[in-house]
Amino acid sequence: MTRSLLRSPWFPYRQSGSAATVRLFCLPPAGGSASSYRAWRSGFPSDIEVIPVQLPGRESRLSEDPVTVAAELVELVADVVVATEGPPFALFGHSMGAMLAYELAAELTDRGTPPVHLVVSGGVPAHLDHLRPAPLDVAGMSDAHLCRYFAEYGGTDEDILADTELMALLLPLLRADLTLCESHRWTPRAPLGMPITALGGAADPGVPAELLARWSELTDASFRMRTFPGGHHYLFDDVAAVIAAVSTTLLDSGGGAP
Question: What positions does the domain Thioesterase TesA-like occupy (predicted)?
């Protein structure tokens, strides 16, 4: 791992001396942060180094403005990923993070440094963004409406929503992430060249299994799909099962190499 990776604010839960054969960069859901995947770092086998990505505007980067245009954010993340050295890497993203992970895989492919595997979770396939739930009037949403939305769909804990001081800090981020999601549109491109694995909750109303399966249309390589008990945020209900599935996916394919 390079010094640039160890010092980067993009990767706050860094570790040195890793013997991993593959790195896994993890992108958060809307309103989420690098700590969404903090528990993952101790759950994966030593062959896989988990690197949660800290986007601007949250936790250790709270003083920075969140980015509300997906293409701009993807370019920034791509810059820091390309600047690091190490073993082959894969990408993981949940919900908003799934969309960002796909776009990041495409951007890195165009730069000549593609990931060896793309794992998407709880996200509508990128080319089917017209099938996402009805657009929200983010600018016109009251703070109370925004809180209700994240309570019902975003998986935000009720205790957090009830903390008025904390929510005063979080609401701009929640609004910014929703703006990013609502404004993003897929740009048609050739299928990716790396394998894609799609994961989801069996009871996720926004991404049913038949929709999740259509991620297969975005790769020329192999495709796998698996659903777990639970809804949209199933991956936080049984962390061990999800970690086992992702680990097996990456290691069975030799680090995910096509």
Answer: 25-251
Q: Which residues are catalytic?
A: 95
Query: Would 178 be classed as within a structural domain?
Result: no
pTM of the model: 0.91
Could you tell me if 25 and 107 are in contact, meaning their C-beta atoms sit under 8 angstroms apart?
no
Helix (H) or strand (E) holding 71: helix 70-82
Q: CA–CA separation, 36 vs 93, rounded Å?
A: 11
Do 5 and 82 form a contact (C-beta atoms < 8 A)?
no
Task: Give domain status of residue 144, yes or no.
Answer: no
pLDDT block averages, 10 residues each, the chain of length 258? 64 79 95 91 92 95 94 98 93 97 98 98 93 68 77 64 76 90 92 98 94 98 97 92 96 60
- Please indicate, yes or no, if residue 91 is contained in any of the structural domains: yes
Residue 225: enclosing H or E segment and its boundaries?
Answer: strand 223-228
Contact, 105 vs 123, CB < 8 A?
no
The structure tokens listed for 219 are: 């790769």
Q: In this structure, is residue 101 part of a structural domain?
A: yes
Check if the beta carbon of residue 117 is closer than 8 Å to that of residue 253. Answer: yes
SS3 state at 24: strand
Residue ranges making up the domain that contains 40:
3-132+186-252
Strands 117-121 and 223-228: unpaired
185-207 residue pLDDT tens: 999 999 999 999 999 999 999 89
Which residues is 127 bridged to in the sheet?
A: none
Is 211 within 8 Å of 79 (Cβ atoms)?
no
Give me the CATH number covering residue 126.
3.40.50.1820
Read off the pLDDT of residues 50-69 as tens digits, 9 standing for 90 and up: 999 999 999 999 999 999 99
Domain count across the chain: 1
